[in-house]
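Lab manual, section 2.4: Encoding a predicted structure.

Procedure: take the sequence of the chain (189 residues), apply the prediction step described in section 2.3, and record the output as structure tokens. A sample record is shown.
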Amino acid sequence: MTRPDKQQPRTIDTFTVRPLDPAVDAERVHGWVTHPKAAFWLMGDASLADVEQEYRSIAAHPHHEAFIGLHDGEPAFLIERYDPTEVELKGLYEAEPGDVGMHFLVAPTDTPVHGFTRAVITAVMAFLFDDPSVRRVVVEPDVTNSAVQALNKAVGFEVLREIAKPEKDALLSACTREQFEAATGGNDR
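Recorded output:
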């Protein structure tokens, strides 16, 4: 997996993506991942120390990265990018050259904006495909997470099959660069 310069913020439309700093971002991210709306993140009972340690581990991992997404300069979402042959899906699917794994979480809000989460996943996919070595994004949402499955479909993912992971039954899904561009009408920037 090619690792773009982790120190430089990246702007995608009105979104900016920067590396997550566990020391700086742990408290904010703790509020996001423990919120009831983040139940599928599986960290509902995590302490602040647990969250900070989790993201320190990710920062130190050679095949896993975390980013904070900002909207108009304000933290608004979380991205995890990983090599699925080494993290999350190792041994659970038939990897292809150029695969990258992804998780994303939109910060909970009391004032939701219609279409915002779809704009976020579109920006996340554009961010991932900005790396020319990425040919396909793979994800493994919980089989019961119909909201994210609908978002995945909207940006071009196709369900490959159900897989059993230790923590959940998941729908292994994939989206090629071409599927993403077709689904978003080429408006991925």
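Check your result against the sample. The chain has a mean pLDDT of 90.
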